[in-house]
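Minutes, project check-in
Item: structure for the 214-residue chain
Input as provided by the requester:
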Amino acid sequence: MAVKSLSAKQERIINFVTEFLQDRGYPPTIRDIAAGCGISSTSVVAYNLNKLEQAGYIRRHSDISRGIKFLTPQQKGGQLVNIPIVGVIAAGEPIPVPASDTGKVLATEGLEVSEELLRGKQDVYALRVKGDSMVDALIGDGDIVLMEYVNIAENGDMVAVWLKEEQEVTLKRFFAEPNRIRLEPANKRMKPIYTSLENVEIQGRVVAVIRRVP
């Protein structure tokens, strides 16, 4: 796909961003673009993105991670939705959620993703993953999980769980057993967490994962 009035490098960036968005449902970072387009410097990528924005091909949100949005009808990346990133969640041992007695915190940044990635889900928020207990579910340290606000779960659901007594939140698979709840990691080297139903508050269910590019 060639776009008139653009340099070869800018056309390459447009093509890469388009394919990345179609394949993954969210825009690439500057580092992703540099690696994918064979550009050695992220400053060169930033310069060309600024030129594309000035020419009216894209819009960039400097305060939003991966904040690139196409403005021209030629680019078919899908409608983008801004999702708030509300904090960090452990995918290992539970860690505290700061300044909250409910497990929810105010968003300090956002992420734009394709609405197709949400599969019609409403009230979606994002959390950064810390830890590696969910690696067998292809969720690693530094990845971002998109969460649907729910307060109930079925066996096998991957959920964010607020542990009331510990005042901590963790990401695990939920299983209701006789007289207890089992929070199961997706890592054979780690043991499940057992707790009471009264100690568990479901904060959300995973609807999608955005993986960190090494």
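Outcome recorded: The chain has four helices and twelve strands.
No further action items on this chain.
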